[in-house]
Write a structure and sequence with these properties.
Low-confidence stretches: none
Mean pLDDT: 83
Helix content: 25-40%
Number of strands: 7
Structural class: alpha+beta
Oligomer: single chain
Distance between the termini: 95 Å
């Protein structure tokens, strides 16, 4: 039994396997498909008529532009008159020194007490200012309402999205120095 014998035997087996894949069954399948295709009837309903489009006539010249800035300003003015004043900051009073700085740039570095009055020590850059209740700080008409040992409470008067003046409470907390953490 040589290698040639095994090669020939393997080649003969392969040819027999391929001969089994003949086209005998294929002819039957094709006849069946042709019969089914002749019997099948496709029913597609007809498409309906499209609706007629009637364009809308927009008379824009006769109406006020809803996106006009002038209309918005006039409506805000009417609303302000209807409100009858309400909460407003005093724009006529003289500004104090710490009102020119935003609150986020001020740091509370301590408190002191003089003649029974509590003062907060606020640092701006390298300068330290004394502030007591009733004084103004920050750029939003902030007035100090309470000086505590660890925080300074401020009532600010700011405008909301509609333009009305509203109160907002803010705290400036005591900033611990690096030396006290050691």
């Amino acid at each position: 039994m040589t290698i040639r014998f095994w090669r020939r035997a393997l080649a003969a087996a392969a040819l027999l396997a391929l001969a089994g894949c003949g086209s005998g069954d294929e002819q039957e399948v094709r006849q069946w498909m042709d019969e089914v295709q002749k019997q099948a009837r496709v029913a597609v309903p007809p498409l309906s008529e499209p609706k007629t489009f009637i364009p809308f006539a927009y008379a824009s010249r006769e109406l006020i532009d809803p996106f006009s800035a002038n209309k918005l300003l006039s409506e805000l003015a009417k609303a302000a008159k209807a409100q009858g004043g309400g909460l407003k900051p005093d724009l006529e009073r003289r500004k104090e020194a710490l009102e020119s700085f935003p609150l986020d740039t001020l740091k509370m570095v301590g408190t002191i007490q003089k003649a029974g009055v509590h003062y907060a020590l606020l640092q701006m850059d390298r300068a330290v200012y004394q502030v007591r209740a009733g004084q103004y700080v920050g750029q939003n008409f902030g007035r100090v309402t309470k000086v505590g040992d660890d925080a300074l409470e401020i009532r600010e008067v700011v405008q909301d999205a509609v333009g009305d003046w509203v109160e907002r409470m803010t705290k400036l907390e005591l900033q611990e120095s690096k030396e006290s953490k050691k």
